[in-house]
Design a protein that fits this description.
By secondary structure, this protein is an all-beta fold. The protein is built from no helices and 4 strands. The chain is elongated, with a radius of gyration of 16 Å. It binds zinc ion. Zinc ion binds next to loops.
Length: 66
């Protein structure tokens, strides 16, 4: 039996927060609460610089025996 677990978190907006090799070379402000950098704002994120991410991943219940 496989069930799905939903995870939501806040992440930097890929449209306006550009990291180079994971480095914050453009000096975006760090959001300690969301644990991500805040981009300069664009249409995609509603000018907040951050985006709400949702990810659903399957959990195979048999794997809990490992
Ligand atoms: Zn954006």
């Amino acid at each position: 039996m496989t069930r799905y677990v939903k995870a939501t978190w806040t992440d930097s907006c890929p449209g306006c927060c550009e990291l180079v090799d994971g480095q914050n070379v453009n000096g975006y402000p760090w959001d300690a609460k969301a644990k991500c950098y805040v981009g300069s704002g664009c249409k995609e994120c509603g000018y907040t610089g951050k985006r709400r991410r949702t990810f659903q991943y399957p959990v195979d219940e048999q794997e809990q025996d490992r």
